[in-house]
Each structure stands twice: as C-alpha cells, then as structure tokens.
Specification:
By secondary structure, the protein is mainly α. It contains ten helices and no strands. Helix 1 crosses helix 5 and helix 6 packs across helix 9. The radius of gyration is 20 Å and the shape is elongated.
Amino acid sequence: ALGAIAIHRDTPAFARLSLAHALSVAAACQPVEVGGGARYHIWDFLVRRFERRLLDEGHPIDRVRAVLIHADRPRHADLLLGQLTELSKRDDFRRLAAALKRARRIVPTGDHPPVDPQLLTHPAERRLHEAVARTRSALTSPADLAQLLAAGGDLPSAIDDLFTSVIVMAHDPQVRAARLALLASAAALGDDVLNWRELNCRTGV
C-alpha cells in the first residue's frame, strides 16, 4: 500500500491516475471474484495508510483530513496540502475560506434544488448568483486552491453582502428556500477541492 502511494506521489505522469479505479481494474484481473466488500476494505486500508504517512510527515491533522477526499490521487492531495500551507498565510484566502464555511453553517445537509433565478429579486441575491456562475465557469477539473481563489475572488464580499442585506431564513418559505439554495450553490463550489468542514482555526484557516 505504501509503495503504491509513494510511486503515485513521485510520478508526475500519474497526477490524474485514480488509485480507486486502478484497484477495480486489478480486482477484475484476479482469477477469483473480488467482491465489493473486499474492495472496500482494501481501499479503506490504502486511505488510512496515506493519512498516516501524511501525519508522520508533520502535516496538521485537520489539513490532512481536508485533502483525503483526493486519496485516490495522492499527488493531487500533495499539491493541495502545499497550497494550504502557503495560501493560509494570505488574507484573501482566509476570507474565501471563512465565507464558504459561513455559507455551509446555515445550509442544511442534503440535496438542494437548483437555483431559480426568477426567485432572486434582491440585488444582493443577484450579485451572489452572478459571482457563483462566474466562479463555476472558470473552474476546471480537478480544481485546486489557487484556481478556486483566482476564480472566486469576489465570492466573500458577495456572500457577506447577502447576509447583511437580507434575512436568509425569511418567513416566506419560497424566499427562504431560494436563498438557501443560492448559498448551497456557493458553498458547493469548493466541494471538489477540499473537505472544508475538517479545517479549523488552529492551523490558520
């Protein structure tokens, strides 16, 4: 497990290679059936070994767990850890992280309906909707923190403006649902980059 992880981390050409997919391919090549339960336990073992290795290297536990959503691409997880170390020193990144976490705190867990622009009548609502659209169109997959920061530079002020200008939990259920869907769309912009809920203020984010 550690050997496979080390090879992936040290090989630039493997940046987009998924270890989870490689595991499925390897399982299909075996002379006996490898069931889903066995594949799950093997994958979980790989993830735990990767997590332990990152912690042994001295990375803070909250940042390690924040990048573990990319355990199937260890080299990309390394990139994000490096970016976290550097960007967490910058005020603009701290503002973006705080804004995304603020949006997440008020949005209930679970799926949310798509945003209906017709229900967004307040200028602050429209401003955030436009900022989300601009950010989403500028992101590629897999996105990293530097790309998210460059694309979402106006997200923090747009999110703050919404909270300042309107009551998100409005009495009108339709208005409330529209505003929560809008904030959910903003919060989701970073979902493919980090597990933001794992980050805490102790390490500067």
